[in-house]
Amino acid sequence: MLHYELFYTTGPSDEWVVFLHGAGGSTKTWSYQLGDFRDHFNLLLIDLRDHGRSKDIQPPFKSYQFSIISEDIKQVLDQAGITKAHFITLSFGSVLVQDLYMRYPELVDRLIIAGGIFKGNVFIRAFVQLARFMNLFLRYSTMYRLFSYLLMPRKRNQTARRIYQMQAAKLTQEEYLKWVGLYAEFFRLLHHFYYQNLRVETLVIMGREDYVFLKAAKSFSKRQSKTRLEIIKLAGHIVNIDRAHEFNDMAISFLKKVDNKDYTPEDRSWPVPTN
Fold first, then answer.
1. Which of 94, 98, 117, 155 has its CA 20 to 30 A from that of 218?
2. Beta strands in the chain (DSSP E)
3. Reduced to 3 states, what is the DSSP secondary structure of residue 251?
4. Can you list the alpha helix ranges (DSSP code H) found in 12-139?
């Protein structure tokens, strides 16, 4: 099955938090979260199929569907004996948890979506079509490096950009093309999830400089009565790395059901990462 890592809390809680990375990522995506979250929760970090240390997963498939990825995740939860957990996802991981939630809603307690993808609007459709076109003449490693600069262009994004480029390099061209095959279901899944009524408390955390996905996140959050949106200044698409301390504070408070009306995240003064 998938490679996964378990971390047991140093505190009294028996709650579980499951972390799902985005396309090209790995468990390393959450390195900046481990220390803070282990004080409060048991943690499960998963390397998705073909990512990180999840190589040669059985059974093999010539192409992928979202159902395959959801079953991979469900199998890990069953193996770990987890029947209900909070989920934290990033980027394309937000699409995967959308499918998982629609198949197994009983698994999800509270949900945190960082840098989420919610709606196939014109800009996002154009972005995906450009990626598909570039597949014709660029290798995955080259294309991913290019798109990482398009999504994370600023100097303060360089740590997140470097981490994702290093992890994405572990995918082969053949593995990447299998994930591209999810395109056939991608927009249909987004449409279904966007218009359903979410029954779990959800926190969406976006970087103010996430120019590709922020608009759809705002629209999605307004539609959902149980969803709250937080926007972090001086952060881009990989918000959990760009502004890790602020992200952790928001996420842990939400999962612990802390409702501090005096807390205004955008006014918090965290040091800006410089490397």
1. 155
2. 4-7, 16-20, 42-46, 85-90, 108-114, 202-207, 227-232
3. helix
4. 34-37, 66-80, 93-103, 122-134
Mind listing the domains of the chain with CATH numbers?
Answer: 4-267 (3.40.50.1820)
What pLDDT shows up at residue 275? 35
Per the CB < 8 A criterion, the answer to whether 20 and 93 are in contact is: yes
Q: Pull the structure tokens for residue 231.
A: 């926007």
Enter the pTM of the model: 0.88
Q: Which tokens sit at 48?
A: 């998705």
* Residues facing 206 on adjacent strands: 231
Kindly state the percentage of the chain with pLDDT values over 90.
59
Per the CB < 8 A criterion, the answer to whether 116 and 92 are in contact is: no
Beta-carbon contacts of residue 67 (< 8 Å; ≥ 6 apart): 99, 103
Summarize pLDDT for 225-252 with one digit per residue, the tens: 999 999 999 999 999 999 999 999 999 9
Please say whether the beta carbons of 208 and 234 come within 8 A: yes
